[in-house]
Write a sequence for this structure.
């Protein structure tokens, strides 16, 4: 879509939009891949797509104008969407959370903006942002995002891999246990049913009911509704045996899933993002050790580097902004 535009020297800014179920956040990004300014509005889904697109156009105008820019300064606008972004026809698919079944989102938005427009599934966009800005070696990169569920992105040959329908990289729905707990995808024992933050919280509640002496009870003030993934890490840091046991089992589930991914892709980098990655070395160190023992290539001289994501809350905006950029075209 960018062929009719020239990337002149003045087009040194990009705008990234993180279209979420709750908020639409937009950021102005410079050619050093820094976010200079952000604005946001409520998503207010469900509502007609034309209304939502008008809000996106308004966010772009606001960002441009209040930074003293005109559209001539903007190289591209990218949108990360919470659903499948079909790269062939520019449609949003499976956008139940926005109330859209199959919508020609990209064509409609492009008609409203005088700059090239790109879109991408939000997990893919975040993976792209991390890959471009994180200073990683190699051109193969997997991002595994661990939060409410487990999602991710696949970069092969320096490009995002979409699959034939834009729905690739659903790492969370890889089966780890045929007889495991039910997953909301309809199968059992999926990676995300065992190793997401939601899964860890469920496992913590189960372990607490069997261990009334656990420190976890104190850490949540006696209310299991207040348990977060962080509570388990805090309990383990304090030496609570129940929390240590939970964390040991949890990092084993994670290592099993990540070893499966490494066996398939043998990427240069597996990057762990999402809320759970904030646990830092308490997560990373056991994960590296356990994954290293499980991968088929464990005796190879060269193996995948496992690390934690460097971008945090800004990954969505930055990744979306950089959808129009390649690794080499941005300095
Ligand atoms: Zn599943």
């Amino acid at each position: 879509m960018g062929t009719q535009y020239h990337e002149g020297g003045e087009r040194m800014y990009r705008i990234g939009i993180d279209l979420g179920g709750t908020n639409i956040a937009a950021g102005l990004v410079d050619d050093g891949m820094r976010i200079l300014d952000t604005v946001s509005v409520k998503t207010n889904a469900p509502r007609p797509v034309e209304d939502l697109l008008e809000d996106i156009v308004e966010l772009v105008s606001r960002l441009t104008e209040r930074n003293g820019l005109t559209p001539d300064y903007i190289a591209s606008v990218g949108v990360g969407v919470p659903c499948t972004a079909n790269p062939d026809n520019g449609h949003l698919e499976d956008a139940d959370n926005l109330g859209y079944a199959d919508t020609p989102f990209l064509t409609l938005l492009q008609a409203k903006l005088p700059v090239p427009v790109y879109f991408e599934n939000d997990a893919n966009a975040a993976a792209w942002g991390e890959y471009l800005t994180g200073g990683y070696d190699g051109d193969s990169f997997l991002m595994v995002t661990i939060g409410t569920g487990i999602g991710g992105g696949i970069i092969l040959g320096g490009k995002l891999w979409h699959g034939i329908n834009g729905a690739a990289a659903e790492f969370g729905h890889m089966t780890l246990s045929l007889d495991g707990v039910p997953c909301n995808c309809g199968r059992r024992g999926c990676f995300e049913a065992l190793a997401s933050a939601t899964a860890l919280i469920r496992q913590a509640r189960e372990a607490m009911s069997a261990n009334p002496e656990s420190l976890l009870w104190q850490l949540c003030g006696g209310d299991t509704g207040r348990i977060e993934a962080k509570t388990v890490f805090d309990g383990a840091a304090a030496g609570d045996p129940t929390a240590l046991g939970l964390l040991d089992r949890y990092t084993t589930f994670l290592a099993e899933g990540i070893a499966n991914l490494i066996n398939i892709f043998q990427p240069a980098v597996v990057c762990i993002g999402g809320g759970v990655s904030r646990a830092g070395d308490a997560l990373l160190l056991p994960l590296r050790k356990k994954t290293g023992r499980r991968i088929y290539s464990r005796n190879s001289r060269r193996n995948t580097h496992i690390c934690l994501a460097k971008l945090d809350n800004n990954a969505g905006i930055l990744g979306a902004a950089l959808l129009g950029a390649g690794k080499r075209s941005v300095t």
Observations:
- The longest strand covers residues 35-42.
- The chain has two domains: 13-133+314-324, 141-308.
- Residues 241-265 form the longest helix (25 residues).
- The chain has a mean pLDDT of 93.
